[in-house]
Write a structure and sequence with these properties.
By secondary structure, the chain is of the alpha+beta class. The protein is 46% helix and 19% strand. The chain has 16 helices and eleven strands. The strands form two sheets. Strands 1-2-6-3-5-4 form a six-stranded mixed beta sheet, sandwiched between helices. It has a five-stranded mixed beta sheet with strand order 7-11-8-10-9, with helices on both faces. 41% of the residues are buried.
């Protein structure tokens, strides 16, 4: 059962009671992420995420860890382009401890300068780790070019240079300017009573009164390019991208179904053609990156240098086929069952339900039932998918990047992809 309460300062509390669950998952969400940072703040949201576990006025970092461990609980946080979330999960009997700990972390963290200095080194190592992981780093490079001149395209963790310049004053100023009550949602799912949960967390959360004028977000323009980045590696990493759907776009259901058919499942066309039939790649997939005002449909493959052109040809053939030929009903129905199956299996997890509560509240201002989503998925036709794909797919509106031991120039991928 879903319930919602709006506190006096505008913070929204949304819960979903799951009577058969033994646990409760809770998250404090802020509708602020890396896209809301100015050039001197790059990586500050992610840095703040780290620092909120480094001690409060009442607890040391060790105290925080011990309290969660003492009840078999779990706590973590994450930063995305548009959100930062501090979340935890405990048995239902320990909900009072969870709400006290989470609110203490969120509202009373001390941002000790010595801890900040230590954590700077940790984050720099995190940045270096990503740079040393080519199948991950190519996505960072690709997004920078695809959404260039917009902070949405920049890496969440910032740069070594910006991170090393961030300090306590900058973090506290950012919190005051971005962590405003109207941007905050507390979400919880599991075996809980809504009013009891509100009574536990409202007194502390209602003390927050930041009211700074929030910066406006600007939707990015998509940029189409062909780029080669040479690097001494064992493999070449390939990413292609085109415009996708936003999280609010009604065409998102057609987009996600096409993604399943194209490359996000083991029976998908790219996986079968490139890996299973020809053995040209171990990892090949398509993906959707969706944000509140924009999106990207992309393809990744890790391949040997000598197979670049053949793999590009195969990808191009699959894209052309999707634009020209209707998807067989059996294949579409299978994709629908794949998405619905994943949704309902994930629905057995409290964390998934808690995440879903917060995101739907941010995007739609309401609860979106699983039945409503299932209905929208079932309504998509093969012609809906083809019509949408024809609107976004064009050989001259596709970006490509090769990263690794590449011996060809960027004109070769561009020429192959323009044969569509």
């Amino acid at each position: 059962m879903y319930q919602k309460t709006v506190l006096r300062n505008g913070i929204r509390i949304v819960t979903e009671k799951i009577p058969f669950a033994h646990s409760v998952s809770t998250g404090i969400w802020v509708n602020a992420g890396s896209r809301d940072e100015n050039p001197l703040e790059r990586g500050i949201t992610h840095f703040i995420e780290h620092m909120l576990f480094k001690g409060t006025k009442r607890r040391s970092a060790l105290d925080i860890a011990k309290e969660f461990d003492s009840v078999g609980g779990f706590a973590n946080a994450f930063t995305s382009k548009e959100h930062v979330c501090f979340h935890a999960k405990v048995l239902a009997a320990h909900l009072p401890l969870l709400t006290d700990l989470l609110s203490d972390l969120f509202l009373q963290s001390v941002f000790d300068p010595a801890e900040i200095e230590r954590e700077q080194s940790v984050i720099v190592q995190e940045i270096r780790m990503v740079e040393d992981t080519p199948d991950e780093f190519i996505h960072v490079l690709f997004q920078e070019d695809f959404w260039k001149k917009n902070p949405l395209g920049l890496p969440i963790y910032g740069t070594v240079q910006t991170v090393e310049k961030l300090g306590r004053t900058e973090m506290l100023d950012f919190i005051t300017g971005r962590f405003n009550p109207e941007r905050i949602i507390v979400a919880a799912a599991g075996n809980l009573d809504h009013q009891n949960f509100v009574d536990l967390i409202a007194p502390s959360m209602e003390t927050l009164n930041n009211s700074t004028l929030l910066p406006e977000r600007f939707a990015p323009d998509s940029h189409f390019f062909s780029r080669v980045v040479k690097k001494e590696l064992e493999q070449v990493h390939l990413v292609l991208g085109m415009r996708g759907t936003s999280q609010l776009d009604e065409a998102r259901f057609a987009s996600h179904l096409l993604n399943v058919i194209l490359g996000s499942s083991m029976s998908s066309r790219l996986f079968q053609e490139i890996r299973e039939k020809r053995g040209l790649a171990y990892s090949v997939y398509s993906f959707c990156h969706s944000h509140e005002d924009s999106g990207m449909l992309g393809i990744y493959a890790g391949i040997s240098p000598e197979n670049i052109q053949e793999v590009l040809q195969l990808i191009n053939e699959q894209l052309c086929t999707l634009a020209q030929d209707p998807i067989p009903e059996a294949e579409l129905n299978s994709a629908k069952e794949y998405i619905k199956g994943n949704m309902y299996i994930n629905a057995e997890n409290n964390d998934y339900r808690m995440n879903r509560l917060a995101k739907n509240e941010f995007l739609f201002g309401r609860y979106v039932s699983f039945e409503e989503v299932e209905k929208k998925i079932n309504m998509v036709t093969t012609e809906d998918i083809r019509a949408w794909f024809r609107c976004i797919y064009s050989p001259d509106k596709m970006a490509s990047m090769l990263y690794g031991p590449v011996e060809i120039g960027p004109e070769i991928p561009e020429k192959i992809l323009r044969q569509g």
